[in-house]
UniProtKB/TrEMBL annotation:
Domain HTH lysR-type: 1-48
Superkingdom of source: Bacteria
Name used for this protein in its record: LysR family transcriptional regulator
Family the entry assigns: Belongs to the LysR transcriptional regulatory family.
Stretches that traverse the bilayer: none
PROSITE patterns: HTH_LYSR
Lineage start: Bacteria, Bacillati, Actinomycetota, Actinomycetes, Micrococcales
Amino acid sequence: MIHRHGTVTAAAHSLRYSPSTVSHQVKQLAAELGVPLLEQHGRNVRLTPAAEALLRHVDVMSAEWEMALADLGRYSETVSGSLGLCGFSTAASLLLPPTMRALNGKFPHLQTQTIEAEPAECFDYLLSGDADVGIVVAAPDIPAGGDDRFSHHFLIDDPLDLMVPLDHPLAERASVTIADTADETWILGRPGTGYHQLLMASCAAAGFAPRIGHYADDWNTGTALVHGGFGVCVASRMSRSQDLHPVRRIPISGDYAPSRHITAVTRTGADARETVAFTLETLTAETNRLMSSLGDELTD
């Protein structure tokens, strides 16, 4: 965790421990191994070369342990224990409840728990063992797909639809391109958020910089501002924000149409466990069913 977050304090926060507890555990491990694991770097600390070498072995051992659990599970007549799921708000509300129902039906002695969490937090829950499967959307602050500690399982590319007032000139269009919005006042997520970066990149690729009138990270807040006539925004196809604030949802087509890349993530090797493999299969089926029904609604 220190390697991922950069400081003992941040690592402790992600694990819900005190910094002194984490520091003590690291010092105790260093004494047992006979090598220093942390060194001073300015006002902070950083991992020593010995700690970096140890981490490479830990990642391998962690994956082997997950495979061992999968092998041992084949000799158990009853699947029990617990399985933790985590995901960002849209996924947590739409995908995780039906997945847990399926798990409870398939494995009646298994305890399941859901944690709503931002994508970066999901990786912390996976590493701490508080979750076994996380649903994340690609973002700058999450580990790269090549990180050996995790296995990514593609679920869906979630399109972002344009949200406009009901009386907007584009409201009667069956679809629009991102270039059609060049003269609009935009409601975007705050700078630095994945939502902001995704839309800015799409507009730049289409040859214009959006005129930003307001910032809103939440789909419901953005749609409420659209309903009030303050501009346009995009919202995830999976979101139901227009149900609260009546607006016109229009699919964005053509080049540079923005979408979110959504994956299910496990610790490396964990996807061999029967319960985790079933969870991934169920999430894939539920995601496909949901996106198909939402697409049908747009064409009705």
